[in-house]
Amino acid sequence: MIASVSALFEGILGAVIGISEGFLKSFTGYFKGLSYSLHKGYSLKSKREFCEPAKENYFFYKQYEDLNNTYKSACSVNTGNILVLRQKLKEKGAFTYGRVKAEQATIHIVGNLMNIFCYFIHFLIVTFISIPGYIFYFGIAAIENLKLIRGKITGICYHCHAKFDIPYYICPECGSLHRQLKPGPYGIMRRVCKCGKVIPTTNLTGRYSLKSICPVCSRGLEVREASPICIPIIGGVSSGKTSFVYSALDCLINDVSKKNNWNISFLNGEDEERIRELLELASKGIPPRKTIKADTVPYNIFIKSGKFRSDKLLYIYDIAGEYFDIRAEVRRQSYYKYTNGLIFIIDPLCIKSSVKYITDKNEITQTVAIEDLVDRFILALREIKEVEPNEFIDIPIAIVLNKIDLINYKGAALDFLKEIEEEKIIRKFQYNFSKYKFFSCSSLQFNNRKFRGDQGVAEIISWVLAQANNEIK
Asked: Using CA atoms, how far apart are residues 179 and 51, in angstroms rounded to an integer?
């Protein structure tokens, strides 16, 4: 009897002590779990989605990862404590049995309730701290996206012709490559590179001033996050495309820009020197060299105005005529996927029915089947743009009769094509393009090495630019 009473008393005493110890471990379990979760310096989501060489803002992703990891760790701490206590049941005695069972029950019930309570408090604290940052982030991200969308800002590589949202940027201090330099877990308006250099993360804060490379070919770019206007020059071999390009550049720099109060600039000093040297050679009567297939880098010019939402970066593609001999060659030219306007050059000197109108018979060139060239181009363009046969191609196109000063005809280009019974050419453009217009011009012509200037090129380039971008109208 005395032994039974003694055992009961020991059991009750053990239970009281077990409950006390269980409460203590229940209260400390969550904080132990917290200490186990705070050792990582980055969030797994940022590592997986971005993996940028920059210091991460804790209150963006990682605070909630730590929250969830802390709760899981705290539950594991409780489970571990219960398992450890189970080993003590091997010790005989009422005191030990009562203490262990009471402590296990306390940890299981109170410990889990305490974890839920601490999790809720932890969630409220990190959310309260994070909300201002999230509001600021969504506000800046919305303004940034609105600027990019309204300004039609995107990136186009002038080396490989790939299109992308923004290029990869290079830290000016250590040269680290930032592939996604935009508001996010590493900073909203600015971020700190791993070297400690603070760099901008938005267009608003001057991200475009950093050195950048193409995300596809990794070659250097200086696109400055402008709105691209891509205009390929189409035409057969020796139709005068390069001469037209030179004349268009000259008109844009010296005539059109001044008339519209535009500020013209170049990618860099080297590119400016290249373009000005070509125009200077043309002004001295030196004909341009023939464009070859290897010439794939476009002529680029920045157009700036206070009326624009964003700067414009003009891409003029001078394409070798051999590319239009085969439809498959046209399809390989990826810039047609995003082109904003087209200029189709027709050399009337190579049209058989126009021979009687040519003033200098020495200028007559080998006749070319213009209709076949137009068909090949239109079919390839429909395939590239995935336009159905019963739909119009929604790219504005200027059809230019070049070298018109060598033709004894004073009327409009459209009337001349009708005069020489080439209505088939007219209909091909009418039935395939929603916006088109016929022009005539004499771009750069060289007789006795004398520069003869241009006629009508300014009107052509102005029309195409206005159709390609609404802000330029």
From this structure: 9
User: What single string gives the DSSP state of each residue in 399-419?
Assistant: EEE--GGGB---S-HHHHHHH
Query: Max alpha carbon distance in the chain (Å)?
Result: 137
Q: Tokens at residue 222, please?
A: 């200086």
Burial of 6 (C-beta count, 10 Å sphere; 0-12/13-18/19+): exposed
How far, in Å, CA of 263 to CA of 257, rounded? 7
Residue 300: phi, psi to the nearest 5? -120, 135
Residue 335: closest CA among 310, 288, 372, 300: 300
Look at residue 17 in the predicted model and tell me its pLDDT.
67
Amino acid at 165: D
Query: Which residues on adjacent β-strands are paired with residue 248?
Result: none
Amino acid at residue number 172: P
The one-letter code for the residue type at 136 is F
In one-letter notation, the amino acid at residue 271 is D
pLDDT (0 to 100) of residue 89: 63
DSSP one-letter code for 287: P
Which residue type does 137 have?
Answer: Y
346: which strand partners? 401
Amino acid at 253: I
For residue 227, which of 137, 149, 161 has the smallest C-alpha distance? 149
What is d(CA 78, CA 89) in angstroms, rounded to the nearest whole number? 17
Per the structure block, which two tokens stand in for 91?
Answer: 């010790």
Count CB atoms within 10 A of the CB of residue 292.
9
Cα atoms in the 13 Å half-sphere on the side-chain side of 184: 17
Domain with CATH 3.40.50.300 in the chain: 227-472
- Return d(Cα 395, Cα 336) in angstroms, integer: 10
For residues 373 and 327, is the Cβ–Cβ distance under 8 A? Answer: no
Q: In terms of DSSP bridges, do strands 220-221 and 212-213 run parallel, antiparallel, or are they unpaired? A: antiparallel
- CA 246, CA 299: separation in Å to the nearest integer? 10
**CATH class label, 227-472:** alpha beta
Rounded distance, CA 180 to CA 459, Å?
41
Task: Put residue 261 in one of left, alpha, beta given phi > 0 → left and psi -120 to 50 → alpha.
Answer: left
Contact 346, 239 (CB under 8 A): yes
Length of the chain, in residues: 473
pTM: 0.82
**The two structure tokens encoding residue 403:** 């070298």
Collapsing DSSP to helix, strand or coil, 58 comes out as: coil
Q: Which helix (H) or strand (E) holds 437?
A: strand 436-440
**From its phi and psi, is residue 401 left (phi > 0), alpha (psi between -120 and 50) or beta?**
beta
Q: Is the pLDDT of residue 449 over 80?
A: no
- Say which residue, 459 or 3, is predicted with more confidence: 459
Q: Give the E-state strand segments of 290-365 in sequence order.
A: 299-304, 312-318, 342-346
Structure confidence at residue 311 as a pLDDT band (50, 70, 90): very high
